[in-house]
Amino acid sequence: MVLGQDWRTAKAAQVPLGRLSRITAGPSGSLLDTLHEGPSGIPVIAPPDITDHLTVDTRRLRRVPKDQAERLDRFAVREGDLLLVRQGTLGRLALIEADQTNWFYSSSCLRIRPDQDQILPQYLAACLAHPPVQRELIGQALHGTVPSLNSSILKQFPVTVVPLHRQREVVAALADIDEQISVQQQMLDRLTALRPSVFDQLTKEE
After folding, report:
1. I need a surface site. Which of 10, 49, 79, 196 has the fewest CB within 10 A?
2. What does the alpha-carbon distance between residue 76 and residue 74 come to, in Å, rounded to a whole number?
3. pTM exceeds 0.70
4. Which structural domain, as residue segments, surrounds residue 31?
5. In a 3-state reduction of DSSP, which class is residue 179?
6. Amino acid 25: pLDDT
7. What's the rounded Cα separation, in Å, for the pair 26 and 33?
8. Backbone dihedral region of 80: left (phi > 0), alpha (psi from -120 to 50 degrees) or beta?
9. In the sheet where 93-95 sits, what is the strand order?
10. Contact between 23 and 115 (Cβ < 8 Å)
11. Which of 154, 111, 128 is nearest to 19 (CA)?
12. Which residue stretches of the chain have pLDDT < 50?
């Protein structure tokens, strides 16, 4: 691990996550005792809402009444935050988008707020989602009835940091790949849907 202040000028350095971001555990269960499944209120992101694609599935979000927002204010998220599952499906994470600003998150998540003068949120998300990094992170979980991660573990966890211009290149390259994956997936879905009708057409009696 690179020590001291010279890591910022290095081509690549291993830096503790706590030096790159602020990490905040979710609220206690007592602060979320008014959670409900109705359409009104402020959404609360929980582990089941976090997908394998670094996004939040908004279809089944539970909510808290708006009059409870003040007591939960310190647990609000904003664009560029990351939510990391610390209990349950360890390591799964989501990158918060603009329209999710001021939503809350559950006690089973940790909020990572990157210092964007040092590290881009998209780059950090890619780092933490990288399979070898995921294995290392999950390997540091506290063992118990339910394995878990906490703020102390995350603050000490090393992240590979490159200069900001290089981070932008990495993010752009990965975005291009994701776009191609999306295009290919759409094509696959169309072909999969087409297959039964082709079979029916070709087996019809003349």
Report:
1. 196
2. 6
3. yes
4. 6-162
5. helix
6. 94
7. 14
8. left
9. 21-25, 109-114, 82-85, 93-95
10. no
11. 154
12. 1-5
- Which pair of tokens denotes residue 31? 């602060």
Cα–Cα distance measured from residue 13 to residue 140, given in angstroms and rounded to the nearest whole number? 20
Cβ count within 10 A of residue 42 = 16
Pair 123, 198 in one domain? no
Residue 37 neighbours by CB under 8 Å, 6+ apart: 60, 62, 63
Residues pairing with 68 in the sheet: none
Phi first, then psi, for residue 178 (nearest 5°) are -60, -40
Cα separation, 64 vs 41, in Å, equals: 5
Question: How many helices (DSSP H) and strands (DSSP E) are in the chain?
Answer: 4, 9
What is the spatial distance between Cα 82 and Cα 159, in angstroms, rounded to a whole number? 14
**3-class DSSP state of 110:** strand
Cα separation, 112 vs 121, whole angstroms: 9
Looking up tokens 């602020």 gives: 22
E strands, 109-206, in order: 109-114, 158-161
> Residue 206's pLDDT is what?
61
CATH of the domain at 128: 3.90.220.20
Provide the 3-class DSSP secondary structure of residue 115.
coil
Helix or strand holding residue 192 (H, E): helix 164-202
**Residue 12: what pLDDT?**
82
Residue 1: inside a domain: no
